[in-house]
Amino acid sequence: MRTPTMKILAHLCAKLVSMNRATKIALMVTVDLFALPLCFLIAMMLRLGNFQLAMNYGARSYLVAALVTIAALSMSDLYRAVIRFIDQRLLTATGLALGLAVLCLYFVSLALNDERFPRSALAIYWFIVFSYVVTSRISVRNFLRNHISERPADDHAVAIYGAGEPGAQLALTMRTSNEYRPVCFFDEKHVLNERTIAGLRVFHTDRLIEMVNALCIRSIIIAIPRVSPERLRDIMQRMAQAGVTTKILSRLLDLADGKAPLESVRELKFEDLLGRPPVPPRHDLFAQCVRGKTVLVTGAGGSIGSELCRQIVTLEPLQLHLLDHSEFALYTIKQELANRFPSLSIIAHLGSVCSVALVERILQDERIDTIYHAAAYKHVPLVETNIVEGLRNNVLGSQVIATAAARFGVDTCVLISSDKAVRPANIMGASKRIAELIFQAAAADAPKTTFCMVRFGNVLGSSGSVIPLFQRQIAHGGPLTITHPEVQRYFMLISEAAQLVIQAGAMAKGGDVFVLDMGEPIRIVDLARTMIVMSGLSEKTPQHPEGNIEIKFVGLFPGEKLNEELLTDGKVFPSEHPRIMRMKENALHPGILETYITFLMTACDTNDRGMIESMVKAIVTEYTPQYQLAPPVTHAAKPRPAHVKKTIPYRI
Questions:
Q1: For FRET with 604, which of 20, 40, 464, 618 sits at 20 to 30 Å CA-CA?
Q2: Low-confidence ranges of the chain (pLDDT < 70)
């Protein structure tokens, strides 16, 4: 409990810290204007040995010495520095600036030709002023650290990963707040082991688990500038073994401005773990097919469709039309967009893309310029067990959109495809490949409309994707269900997916397939373990039975592949965007394709899976159905007791 005096000191410190920068500089200069003449007087007294002799040189000499010294200190950035973060480099610069001040005073005395002035006193003056500057600034720094806030009894013990300058600044800032209590650094450099930085001991990362237990560390904050996603995932794995929560330092500028660590430290986001930096859009391409145009988005209530709409409304379209068969999803996105952009004309159409009459009425009445076709069934297990509806929606819907776009002279029509369309092993992937063939045929048959396709992998945060499911499973105490320990996927942000689709229309020449450079694929089991750590939990294994969350492997779904692909054997070309590739693939003749699709829809009417798969194989020769494979024998792949309810694994 603090005394009244301590409360007064804390209030004073808070006032000092809250001052604006100009006021702080004025205060420091004013104090130095009083202190520096006194330093010069002490130097003269030490040199002359008599106070009266020192006073004979008049007040003007002492004022000149102070003004020259302040000018030199300003050159060293002493007054612009944050006192709480003064370091050795700044003190070195201050010493050099004082040397320059002494040199200037020496030449001034020579110019005045004052033989009585003891020039050796200037050397003494340098030592006294430097001692004053160091003592005053360090004292104020310690005063602020000790009294600026009251630390609660249950303060949060944390370690800082990275003993560089950002980590040191973070440690100093934490000492002025009651949010965290820094206890040590961890760093990968052996040369820093057992050193002391910013008053904290540095330990090598090999001792992470040992020191976490010894110092009762609850969290570790990563303070490494521009850390790569690959390295970040490696660090997260180390945190997993130590069983601590992890955060990351995001904004160094906040520390320099004296803001609380809570504003500079944030939770790790899933995009931090992508394995690559996010791909920014090219702004000259971004609005080309949207600004001043009438745009239609099919599947507007879905994950990709709704994000497309959010991006489109920021690009000043003339009108935005939404089409979706889900009343709730359509209502939700319509209300969201209308609230954000009340002046924009947004029209919602309830119905299916398979309805020829509905689609043609929209295109004819509204004079659509650009179509983004996002309506599709995409969940592999559901489509695999409901192949008739999956094929009708994905194939027939794409055919209706492509035919209507060509008939009514739409300028640009973009299909959202999937990496599962490459050498498909399931009906969903095959249906998306047929949709691509439909758009390729339309591009050859309708030169007035630019048709193109966008192919990408898994989208973080989309409906049915792995991350939301893992979050729900963690919230229920696990287990996290994964189909196979070696399964891996490409990932992209939902904003990246929408931006890629919008840019593709601007770059398309007709019949193009655009693919985003998505870096290296990520193993799903690594993602699962990282999510466990990000939740502040630990994995439960036979080696660590005290863990919180178990990972279980349940076997591949029928039609599921271990590894997805983005590129086929077609020709790959660069596009106008350095991170987006353009492909040209083999296509079927429009007449032959139309005949095949007619037979496929007839086969769907019979509900005969064998006949349907034969027709799919005839259209997509690379289609190779795969059936469930048993996972390798691991601790997490034991047979499930009959009385235990099966947990639905994630969608790939």
A1: 464
A2: 1-21, 54, 56, 58, 81-88, 112-117, 142-155, 175-179, 228-230, 240, 250-280, 461-465, 518-519, 534, 536, 559, 565-572, 574, 626-652
Angstrom distance (rounded) from CA 203 to CA 160: 10
CATH 3.40.50.720 fits 283-460+490-544+566-588, yes or no: yes
Residue 409 backbone class (left: φ over 0; alpha: ψ -120 to 50; beta: rest): left
Q: How many angstroms from the chain centroid is the CA of residue 151?
A: 32
For residue 378, give every residue at least 6 positions away whose Cβ sits within 8 Å of its Cβ, in sequence order, or none. Answer: 418, 428, 464
Q: How far is CA 154 from the centre of its chain?
A: 31
CATH superfamily placement of domain 157-268: NAD(P)-binding Rossmann-like Domain (3.40.50.720)
CA separation, residue 519 to residues 286, 322, 495, 503, 522 (Å): 22, 33, 17, 19, 9
pLDDT reported for residue 615: 92
b/e code 5-27 from CB counts within 10 Å (16+ = b) = eeeebbeebeebbeeeeeebeee
Q: What is the 3-state secondary structure (H, E, C) of 447-490?
A: CCCEEEEEECCEEECCCCCHHHHHHHHHHCCCCEEECCCCCEEC
Distance separating alpha carbons of residues 603 and 309, to the nearest angstrom: 36
Structural domain spans, the chain? 4-147, 157-268, 283-460+490-544+566-588
Q: How far apart are CA 438 and CA 10, in angstroms?
A: 72
Q: What 3-state class would DSSP assign to 583? A: strand
CATH topology identical between 157-268 and 283-460+490-544+566-588: yes
- H helices of 243-366, in order, are 252-256, 261-264, 283-286, 303-312, 327-340, 356-366
Measure the CA–CA gap between 99 and 630, rounded to whole angstroms.
77
Cβ contact 492:458 at 8 Å: yes
